[in-house]
């Protein structure tokens, strides 16, 4: 037998365009990858495909009108965006909303968090070839969206909050339907975990992939479940409570390895904790109005009055007409909230006019995505969708 | 070190570059000259403010301020759970700041965004190119003198008339 001496195969680097249209980008992103064989040597992400100038638009729309724009940012959990923006505007004005308003906001935010996380886990699974988990999750998401439809009238573009309260109260017997869905959540989460947690393929594909160290996470400004999967004990709901989150009893999920598997585990645990918060919110739901005192001049009148009484109509125009309406004081406010992706902050600067002077969104997706080129370096090409899925990028929020 | 102590320290140590310290809606804002921003950020970072939560800019054209632009840094201390806003003022004729990328990697993309939308450049940034708009885009959309509907930069699109009879389509 003749032994042949194998020379190491020399290959040229190949540039592969990942996206803008690719099934696993879930939005329009483009990553130019330099490959050596199947190993990624360098990745250059390019964003901005969905840049829609929301921040510029915010300078021309008044405070209540801009809420409809916040829906379109993170379209998987629009209610969290609504709440975050309303909180920022209320802080700027100095409004204190009623307890019932805050409890309903907490309930809605946590339902959104469940829907967002369950979809993210499902998408991650379907990118790695596990279709069943995705279908279980998607059915649950539909049920939660039905709940949104009941309360807000729409599934996606909710626009549920107003500056100073809510568009409308939750319907009667809402707690019964919510409890029914919440019971389902536990079962679905258990199903998904049974399918995935000890699945060998799942473990090989996700463990030790895309590890973020604690120092990197802080340096890159990473927040939310991604940071908590890297061992950072920071949850804005607990550490800087807003909307009476301090009245709820729940735990913060933390993992230590910072890989894709840990991010999945943190999300699954957060779903359980959100269910806990929802149950408490329904249990302790206080009575009262969902809008601040109309005498303050910040609240829109109920639609009933607008359509059926002349006073209501006059009052409605007093708020919405171009030369009238609310004019917050000159100043600025930044409110950080814990959205499903991480720290979602709204920074509003007012010059005393009807529209904000500058309204900035702190998008968690942008900061979370900025570490992506570092994460994929040295991994195989097939690991890139796993890492991308675990970051949970929402392109609408990324580009704004 | 707690925030009030750091602020007094800055007021003493950087007295010529500190323009003002204000408080609104419970938030502390420090207004400083742009040239010394890196030293101030370093001081904050060494005293527990380990997280650059957000970075953005404001065009003070009609709002009024010390200079035309201000770049806003929102810092967070995980240890003491405090937040502080640092505003660095940049003049209109020379919109340039030292880059904070050496302190926090997250400043990389955020400075690119500010460069893209406001036209403020950052000295020492490794890769200062546009991030949201295309590379050949002209203008900086979030400046106040930039119209909402744009400056019609792209009105030179070639008109494709293939397959349509121009005269007959006018009737419609």
Task: Itemize the secondary structure elements and their pairings.
The complex is a heterodimer of chains A (400) and B (172).
Chain A: E1 14-18, E2 30-36, E3 39-46, H1 54-58, H2 66-71, H3 78-93, H4 99-127, H5 131-152, E4 161-162, E5 165-166, H6 174-196, H7 200-206, H8 214-219, H9 225-229, H10 236-239, H11 260-283, H12 303-308, H13 310-320, E6 331-339, E7 342-350, E8 358-362, H14 364-369, H15 372-376, H16 384-391, H17 395-399
Chain B: H1 3-13, E1 18-24, E2 27-33, H2 37-46, E3 51-59, E4 69-77, E5 82-90, E6 96-98, H3 107-118, E7 121-123, H4 166-170
Which strand order do you get reading across the main beta sheet of chain B?
1-2-5-4-3
Integer-rounded radius of gyration of chain B? 21 Å
Helix and strand content put the structural class of chain B at alpha/beta
Largest interface in this structure:
A-B, 41 and 39 residues
Annotated CATH architecture of chain A: Orthogonal Bundle
* Helix content, binned percent of chain A: 40-55%
* β-sheet strand percentage of chain B: 25-35%
Poorly predicted ranges of chain B (pLDDT <50, ≥5 residues)?
Answer: none
Q: What is the CATH superfamily classification of chain A?
A: Cytochrome-c3 Hydrogenase, chain B
How many beta-strand segments of chain A? 8
Query: Which structural class do the helices and strands of chain A define?
Result: alpha+beta
Shape verdict of chain A: globular
Key phrases:
heterodimer, A: 400 residues, Cytochrome-c3 Hydrogenase, chain B, 3-stranded antiparallel beta sheet, 17 helices, 8 strands, 12% strand, B: 172 residues, alpha/beta, two-stranded parallel sheet, 27% strand
């Amino acid at each position: 037998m003749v032994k042949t001496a194998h020379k190491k195969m020399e290959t040229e680097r190949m540039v592969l365009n990942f996206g803008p249209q690719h099934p696993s980008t879930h939005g329009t992103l483009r990553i130019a990858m330099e490959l050596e064989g199947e190993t990624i040597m360098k990745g250059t992400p390019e964003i901005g495909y969905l840049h829609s100038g929301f921040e510029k638009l915010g300078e021309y729309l008044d405070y209540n009108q801009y809420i409809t724009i916040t829906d379109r940012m993170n379209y998987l959990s629009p209610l969290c965006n609504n709440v975050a923006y309303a909180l920022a505007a209320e802080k700027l004005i100095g409004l204190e909303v009623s307890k019932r308003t805050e409890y309903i906001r907490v309930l809605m935010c946590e339902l959104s968090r469940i829907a967002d996380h369950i979809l993210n886990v499902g998408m991650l699974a379907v990118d790695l070839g596990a279709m069943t988990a995705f279908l279980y999750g998607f059915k649950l998401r539909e049920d939660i969206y039905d709940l949104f439809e009941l309360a807000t009238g729409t599934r996606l573009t909710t626009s549920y909050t107003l500056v100073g309260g809510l568009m409308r109260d939750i319907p009667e017997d809402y707690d019964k339907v919510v409890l029914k869905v919440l019971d389902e959540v536990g079962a679905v989460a258990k199903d998904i975990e049974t399918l995935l947690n000890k699945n060998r393929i799942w473990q090989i594909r996700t463990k030790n992939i895309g590890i973020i160290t604690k120092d990197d996470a802080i340096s890159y400004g990473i927040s939310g479940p991604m940071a908590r999967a890297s061992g950072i004990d920071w949850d804005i709901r607990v550490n800087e409570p807003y909307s009476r989150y301090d009245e709820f009893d729940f735990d913060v999920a933390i993992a230590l390895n910072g890989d894709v598997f840990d991010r999945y585990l943190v999300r699954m645990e957060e779903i359980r904790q959100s269910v806990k918060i929802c149950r408490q919110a329904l249990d302790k739901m206080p009575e009262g109005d969902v809008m601040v005192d109309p005498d303050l001049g910040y609240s829109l009148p109920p639609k009933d009055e607008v359509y059926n009484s002349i006073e209501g109509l006059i009052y409605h125009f007093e708020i919405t007409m171009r030369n009238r309406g609310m004019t917050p004081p000159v100043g600025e406010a930044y409110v950080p909230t814990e959205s499903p992706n991480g720290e979602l902050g709204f920074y509003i600067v007012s010059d005393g006019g009807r529209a904000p002077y500058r309204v900035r969104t702190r998008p968690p997706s942008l900061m979370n995505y900025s570490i992506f080129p570092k994460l994929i370096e040295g991994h195989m090409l097939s690991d890139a969708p796993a890492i991308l899925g675990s970051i949970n990028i929402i392109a609408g929020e990324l580009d704004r | 070190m707690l925030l009030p102590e750091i602020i007094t320290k800055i007021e003493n140590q950087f007295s010529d570059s500190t323009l003002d310290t204000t408080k609104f809606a419970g938030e502390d804002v420090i207004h400083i000259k742009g040239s010394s921003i890196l030293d101030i950020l370093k001081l904050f970072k060494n005293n527990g403010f380990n997280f650059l939560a957000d970075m953005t800019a404001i065009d003070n054209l009609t709002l009024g301020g010390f200079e035309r632009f201000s770049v806003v840094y929102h810092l967070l201390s995980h240890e003491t759970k405090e937040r502080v806003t640092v505003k660095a003022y940049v003049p209109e004729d020379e919109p340039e700041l030292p880059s904070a990328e050496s302190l926090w990697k997250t400043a990389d993309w955020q400075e690119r965004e500010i460069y893209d939308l406001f036209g403020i450049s950052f000295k020492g940034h490794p890769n200062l190119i546009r991030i949201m708009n295309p590379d050949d885009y002209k203008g900086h959309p979030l400046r106040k003198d930039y119209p909402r509907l744009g400056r019609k930069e792209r009105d030179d699109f070639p008109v494709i008339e293939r397959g349509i009879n121009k005269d007959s389509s006018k009737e419609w």
